[in-house]
Specification:
Blueprint lengths: L1 H21 L4 H13 L6 E7 L2 E8 L2 E10 L2 E8 L2 E6 L2 E3 L3 H18 L10 E11 L2 E10 L11 E7 L5 E8 L5 E13 L2 E11 L9 H6 L3 E7 L2 E7 L5
Antiparallel strand pairs: 1-2, 1-14, 2-3, 3-4, 4-5, 5-6, 7-8, 8-9, 9-10, 10-11, 11-12, 12-13
Length: about 250
């Protein structure tokens, strides 16, 4: 009987240790698991293309190098913006044209932001990202980790003082909800609900329903409660269409 009790005690201790090992304890660990779930190791060596709001986008990433392309058409022809490790270039009907210094930042930020949201949570391990784990919340009856993200001024871009919240499912490690506050154009607060999840060649994509609160004084940490109480106004749907993925061969 003593031996049986001892065995049960040992198994219980090991079970507890295994649970502790599996349960992430830091914001960094949770983000790592969410990125692995969304990318499967493929986001860093891929060509991703999609359409968004009448423009065509493509991201090429390999060995730390990247090239983001946005193609738009208007009455004058085709405008192609290319953002890479080497900076920004603009082409009009395939001929490179000069970009005024005053426009470089706004064009680059516009291209960057589309890829940032289209491939979340990929990108949350950039050097400028600072993560903080807050209290868990329940949304629609499901448990979520709450992670607040801010940015350092060095490498954080022109909007480094923006604040983000990400709610990551505690079992699936999917980013199902996010919120952010921004200061440009008078400032604003947004809350997004992910929908239409799909996996294309090993990489997960979602679309979003985009909401705003009635008051700019609402803290972004409180938005899930407002969302559940129907205290947010639906502004738009954010959809990426015609998504394709090509993977580069992995080297060992």
């Amino acid at each position: 009987m003593k031996n049986l009790l001892l065995l049960v005690l040992i198994l219980t201790i090991f079970a507890c240790r295994e649970t502790e090992t599996k349960a992430p304890g830091t914001a960094q660990q949770i983000i790592d698991l969410a990125i692995e779930n969304a990318c499967g190791g493929n986001c860093d060596s891929s060509v991703i293309s999609f359409d968004f709001r009448d423009k065509a986008y493509q991201a090429v990433r390999l060995n730390g190098s990247y090239k983001y392309t946005r193609v738009a058409k208007d009455s004058l022809g085709t405008i192609t913006d290319v953002l890479s490790n080497d900076g920004l270039k603009r082409y009009m009907n395939e001929v490179e044209v000069a970009v005024e210094d005053s426009l470089v930042t706004s064009i680059s930020d516009g291209v960057n932001s589309v890829f940032y949201f289209a491939q979340l949570p990929y990108g949350l391990n950039d050097k400028a990202v600072k993560k903080k784990l807050l209290d868990d919340v329940t949304i629609h009856g499901a448990p979520y980790y709450s992670i607040k993200v801010t940015f350092s001024e060095d490498g954080g871009g022109t909007d480094f003082d923006d604040e983000f919240m990400y709610w990551i499912h505690k079992t699936n490690y999917t980013v199902d909800f996010l919120a952010y506050s921004y200061a440009t154009n008078g400032g604003g607060i947004r809350f997004r609900e992910a929908y239409n999840p799909r996996v294309v060649d090993g990489i997960r994509f979602v679309d979003y329903r985009n909401f705003k609160p009635m008051s700019l004084k609402s803290a972004i940490e409180t938005l899930p409660r407002l969302f559940e109480n129907k205290g947010l106004t639906l502004l738009s749907s954010i959809q990426t269409e015609n998504v394709t993925v090509s993977l580069f061969p992995k080297t060992h």
